[in-house]
Amino acid sequence: MPFDEFVNWALYDPNIGYYRTRRKRVGKDASNDFYTSTSLGRVWGELILDASLKLLAKRPPSKFVFVEIGAEPETSILDGLNHPFAHHKVIRLGDKIEIPRNAIVYSNEWLDAQPFKRFKYDKKRGTWLELFVGLSDFKLVLIEKKTENPLVLSFPNPVNDGYFIDWPSGSISSLNELASNPSWFGVFMTFDYGLTRSCLFNDRPEGTARAYSKHKMLSELLSNPGEQDLTCHLCWDNLRESLELAGFKNVTLASQESFLMTHSNAQIKEIFEQNKTPMNNKMLALRELIHPAHLGHGLQALSAVRF
């Protein structure tokens, strides 16, 4: 099967899919697989709420629905918070993505949880090969095939033989479907890991695909399907183009730190004023969210508006 079909099976199969089975995946406990901004609890929700109001500008929040895509079971970033929105809608795995006419659409590491394709450059033949997953002696193995996939027509020929491209096809199609729906207006913001096309094609010869289990990053992508997360870096250039083609304005990519310091500065100031002790839980959470050595630099924010 093509590699993206394998990823889709390993992550979303009703019987063995990593995201389908009941488990706690996100958090700092040793039994979890990874943690992200949502793991910091209430502080993250407060910052996103503040950013939403800033991006709405002077438009009344009571006329907009806050839509959260990809929340983990029984969790939401607005849990326990008083918000000024007309409604709070949470879209979880299996739910149909339906966006109200006036909406603030938010997601955190939703796009990098979509299937992706793998390609490898064969310098001798001067062509890209597509990677498939097959069986050999009852073991999953990678199979290289010459491809007619039109995607590779836009790929440059790299200097290095054996250069890998992990192409985030699922994230691009998911955002296209979401953004190209002309029936909703408002704010879009997503937080994730990604790179430019130039970086993907020139600076990552081994690709960006990786697996996560028990807070360890693994390179064995075919091992234990359904038991580990599979992901790759997004391509920010394509995602920005998707938003622009759908009529979004002020399409901006920034580090999470920069985004929060720009759009959530009022809430950050309030946290500093109300928490004079630097080692209390709220200040520690804020530090992890905005400090470049933690989540502040690694995660990036893509935001846009359509009114």
What does the model show?
This protein is of the alpha/beta class and 307 residues long. The chain has a domain of 140 residues: Vaccinia Virus protein VP39 (Rossmann fold), CATH 3.40.50.150. Helices cover 27% and strands 26% of the residues. It has 9 helices and 15 strands. Strands 2-1-3-8-15-14 form a 6-stranded mixed β-sheet, sandwiched between helices. Strands 6-5-4-7 form a 4-stranded antiparallel β-sheet. β5 and β6 form a beta hairpin. α2 packs antiparallel against α7 and α3 packs parallel to α5. The longest helix has 15 residues. The N and C termini lie far apart (42 Å). 36% of the residues are buried.
Summarize this structure as a short list of keywords or feature phrases.
alpha/beta; single chain; 6-stranded mixed beta sheet; 26% strand; 4-stranded antiparallel beta sheet; Rossmann fold; 307 residues
What's the name of the CATH homologous superfamily of the domain at 39-107 and 170-193 and 234-264 and 292-307? Vaccinia Virus protein VP39
Q: What is the CATH first-level class name of the domain at 39-107 and 170-193 and 234-264 and 292-307?
A: Alpha Beta
Largest sheet: 6 strands, mixed
CATH topology of the domain at 39-107 and 170-193 and 234-264 and 292-307: Rossmann fold
The geometry reads as globular
Order of helices and strands: HHEEEEEEEHEEHEEEEHEHHHHE
Number of helices: 9
Strand content: 25-35%
Q: Classify the oligomer.
A: single chain
Estimate the helix proportion, in percent. 25-40%
- Average pLDDT over all residues: 90
CATH-defined architecture of the domain at 39-107 and 170-193 and 234-264 and 292-307: 3-Layer(aba) Sandwich
- Tell me the total number of β-strands: 15
Alpha-beta classification: alpha/beta
- What Rg do the Cα atoms give? 20 Å
Question: Which stretches are poorly predicted, pLDDT < 50 over at least 5 residues?
Answer: none
Question: Can you list the strand order of the major beta sheet?
Answer: 2-1-3-8-15-14
Distance between the termini: 42 Å
